[in-house]
Structures are given as C-alpha cells and as structure tokens.
Amino acid sequence: MNYKTRKIIPQLATLLFIVLVFGFFTINAQMNMANRGIDFGYGFLTQESSFDVQFSLIEYDGSHSYARAYLVGLLNTLLVSFIGIIFSTIIGVVVGIARLSPNFLIEKTAAVYVEFFRNIPLLLQIFFWYFAALRALPLPEKTEPFFGVFFLTIKGLYMPAFIWNNLDIFLYSIIASIISIISIRIYAKSLREKQGKQIPVFTTSLSILILLPLLTFLVGGVTLDFEIPVLKQLAKTAFIYDGGVSIPPELIALTLALSLYTATFIAECVRAGIQGVSKGQKEAAASIGLTTNQILKLVIMPQALRIIIPPTTNQYLNLTKNSSLAAAIAYPDLVLVFAGTAMMQTGRAIEIVSITMLTYLSISLSISVLMNWYNKKIAIKEK
C-alpha cells in the first residue's frame, strides 16, 4: 500500500462515518414523523402568515406569505449585524490604540472599559439598555428635541427623513467617485513602486468623493428635502411622532449592547496586533523623522493588520450569531419572526430550524470569505 492510498483511506472512512450518522438521524426523523402523521415539505412558505411585525425594512403585513416573513427577519438580522460590526470596529480600534497610550488616564480608562463590558454577560447588557436605560426616557409629548429635529423617546428615536429628487443621478456620481478613487490608488501604487514618488492619495480621494456628488446638486438637478417628525395626538393621553424615520428602542438597545460588548474583544485584538510589531520598526521609523501618527499609519498598522484580522473575523462572526439574542427584547430578527412565531403557527419545526441554521451558516461563511480575501490582500508579500 503506497503513501497516497494510506492518506486517502482515513479521509474516506471519516466521510463514510459522517454520511452514515447523517443518514441514521434522517431516517429516524422520517420514521418518527410518519408515525405521528406529520408530513415534511416547504410548501408552507407560500401560505399566508397571518401575523404582523412591528419593524420591517420592506413592506409587510399579515396577508403576506411566510417566505416574506422570513425575508423580513433576515433583513432585520443583517441590519443589526452590519451596524454592530461598523460601530464595534470603530470603538474597538480607538480603545485598542488607547490601551497603549503613554497617557495614564487614557490607558486606564480604556482598560476599565474593556474589563467592565467584556466580563458582563451580553444578555444582561441587552436587558440593561432596553429595560433600564431606554425605558427611563420621556414620553413623546414630554421630549425635548436635539438640534430641533431629533426626538429620543421611550418609543424610539425619531429623525428627519430624506426626500430625494433625481436620486439615480446622485447614485451614479457615487459609483463614478468610487471607480475614480480605485483608479487613483492603483496609479499611485504603480508610481510609488516604479519611481518612488508619493502622491496625496487620501486628500485626492476625499476631494473626489465630496466634489463629484456635490456637482450633481449644482448642475445635475439633484435636490434633497427633509421630512421632519411632527407630534401627533392619537387619543387623549396617547401621542406619537408622525413622519420622518423612526428607530425602535429594541434596535437601539441591541445595537448598543452588541457594539460595546464586541468592541472590547476587537480592542484586545488591535492591542495584540500593535504589540506584535517589534520596537525596532518603530525606532527605525522615528529615526528618519516620521511623526507618531505617520509611524502608526505607515509602519505599525500595515504590519499589525496581519495579526488583527483573523481574530477580528471571529468577533464579527460572534456578533452576527449573538444578534439572535434579540428575541429576548422582542426585536423582530430571524429567530423571533421565523424560528419563533412562524414555527409556532405552522408546527414545521424541522423545516424552519433547518432553514434558520443554513441562513446563519451562509451569513457566517460569507463574512469569513470576505475577511479572508481582505487578509490575503493586505498580506505583506516578499519579493
């Protein structure tokens, strides 16, 4: 028996074992369902759902199908995950750098933040923000506005809504700006490698990103109006803001808890990445006259990212999966809407749980693929 055969046999045996185990549970489930007179299928997805959802990014009511309800829950899950990843990354990077600050007060404040938030269970933090912090806010009729147009109440945050004219022209300008910025970055990299010349990429890119969309307002016929929320009385003691954009308190509480909790772990990833760069690199950069900010931007962070990205990817995955705790405060995510209400109404436990599991698996794998691609892209390649 040659080496290749000996190497393949354990792999085939493992694969066969997995198939047999999966087949056993599948056959066992089918037999139990048949004995109880339960049929298996996904035809229920086209049936009328007959329940409403308090917050949805798309049009939805009880007359829509279960498939539409699934889409509502999925979009709400993606929304809180996306916002949480953005906020936790920003907070985590800032706190991670602050943890290494020579300033005693800044360093200790960052350390206290990390130790405090990461050692309290996430579910308790969600409860705190929802039941303690946001429930203490005033009623709509007693709310004082921020900047005259923002209203933070016990029923959520109300803010102006954008009303666009010729929005397509504005979006085309954004796409053109992005293409221009990518082209400039490619040209700047080529110029630096061939001739050793530097051009102000950041300033040029920022100027394009601002000026090109601005031109659409000046000569492209693009206009932007605002719809301000207005207090409306529904009954003698019931008030609500009408118009504008409303963000429910469940989304606010969940976003705050996920962002602040996950940011502590990202901060430690950033701190470890920066400390993983040798002091000789920093000293060499300082010896040629680079400022502290230049050393951090041009020398430390490009090398530290190789250490930061892999564990940070894990934190993004954790945040996405932890968003399922939204059901504890009735935020209509995928688990509450589909794996909760829809499953109780239809009784299709196996079908709905399998769809929900595959959905979270697909989201996690998509994040992993994207972050692995970025990790390879920023890797320092030896020539």
Protein model, in words:
The protein is built from 11 helices and 7 strands. With 383 residues, the protein is mainly alpha-helical. Among the domains are: 3-37; 46-119 and 248-378, MetI-like fold. The longest helix has 33 residues, at 3-35. A 3-stranded antiparallel beta sheet has the order 1-2-7. The protein has helices at 3-35, 66-98, 104-118, 122-133, 167-195, 201-218, 249-275, 279-287, 292-322, 334-346, 349-378; strands at residues 151-153, 156-159, 161-165, 223-227, 230-233, 239-242, 245-247.
Shape: globular
CATH topology of the domain at 46-119 and 248-378: MetI-like fold
Distance N to C terminus: 41 Å
Radius of gyration: 26 Å
**Low-confidence parts, pLDDT < 50 over ≥5 residues?**
none
Largest sheet: 3 strands, antiparallel
Layout: helices, strands, pairs:
Elements (H helix, E strand, L loop, with lengths): L2 H33 L30 H33 L5 H15 L3 H12 L17 E3 L2 E4 L1 E5 L1 H29 L5 H18 L4 E5 L2 E4 L5 E4 L2 E3 L1 H27 L3 H9 L4 H31 L11 H13 L2 H30 L5
Antiparallel strand pairs: 1-2, 2-7, 3-4, 5-6
Helix pairs in contact: 2-7, 2-10, 3-7, 4-7, 5-6, 7-9, 8-9, 9-11, 10-11
